[in-house]
Design goal:
single chain; two-stranded parallel sheet; 475 residues; disordered N terminus
Amino acid sequence: MIFLHSKIKRMKMQKLYHQKLSSCLVILFLCGSQVLHAQKTFSAEQCVQYAFAHNPLLQASSTDTAISDLDIKRVSGLYLPRVNFGAAFQYFITKRNLLVEGGTTLAPSTIAPGEPYAIPIGYNNTWFPTLSVNQLIFDPSYRNSYNIASQNRMLQQQEIADFKINLVTGIYKAYSACRLLEVQAKFLVQNINRIDTLIELTRVKFKEGAGIKIEVNRVEVTGNRMRSELANVRNSFAGAMLGLQFQMNYLEQDSMILSDAFSIPEIVSATDPVMQELLIGDPAKRIESQMLKTQIELADESIKLERARKQISIGADGQLGFTPAANSVGKIFQGERWRPYSYIGVNVFVPIFNGSDVNRAVEQRKLQASQVRNYFDQFTNQFESEKQTVFYQIKNAKEKFLYAETNLKLAENNIYLLQEAFVNGVADNQDLILGENDLYENQARYYDELLQLLLSQIEGRYVIGSYNKISGLSN
């Protein structure tokens, strides 16, 4: 037994030496890797802002907003005057003749009444320039067209906000999963270091004839399970990091370091406020509700726009008319050639019958408006069901986590007690193996329940509209 304890002491000293050597190698490796690729530190808020700045879909949506702004300006310009200039140049193959009848003022007296007579005009080409101005005075559809353009722009902004909210939710979920998996990996490394010591001890006992082979197999199985779980956690972390980088559109070579503090007590304490807000949640805070309200206003304006097609519209127009026979530049500016063909006036458009097209179009718009209102009512009912579902999801996740936390503390305390008992000769290797297995299982369950609680909280914040502000909306 004295030889066994001295052997264990030497093994611990060797293990400490190897751990220090491994730490030095890791530091040297990190220093060398920093020469190749730098590291960038990101908080969750910085990840969101990076995504807003680099996501191509958001940039495309910004272009849609600019298009909507131009639609408003186009409608606003309907009351601006329209000025047009036109010109026609004509060449006649033969000289022009003016046909008159005998007995008229232009006909010579020698021509019998009713007989045709051709008067030569004397030019082969002419230029017909014209300058016209049109001004809209009253159009009953103008106000509705302007409102529709404004509502389309608002709807476009709300669609961008909806995309941002979903993007923020996804980033927070991936970021939180990465931080949790980092913490879980650290605890698994500690477990593996402890189980490695137990494996070496069990092997020594077996070699010295103080143990049996089945104990060695059992403790090695436990160690392999922990290593397998560590590999799984690290792979899950890599997957979560890839998901985070995908949502951020992070394509840089520099590795990401997540800097936000990960406090489990803060996560647990944040549960009750989220649950309270879910109980009093207002569907009006959700972007979906705001979008549906805008669509209802848009549908109502579309009805008014169709009805405006039945009403009178008034405009004014004027024209600086033609210059017939202006076959030279000097003749173009002779006022007597312009005045007989120039005018200014008012035009009134009165729709009388359009084949019932307006009535049918109005009925279509009414059906569309009714459909949108049904969607709005459905969303309101869905929100009530959604917040209740998420409330009980968070409640259940918290209760399961608290049980898992209690069991983990008991398992950790058991490991401490078993180590003391082993040193005092009260417990054997089999007890330590069982204790390590129990700790491993409870630790895995603990972090799984913590992840579910964390994701449920993020989903709860999404339901109550907590991410509206960061997405550019007011609560």
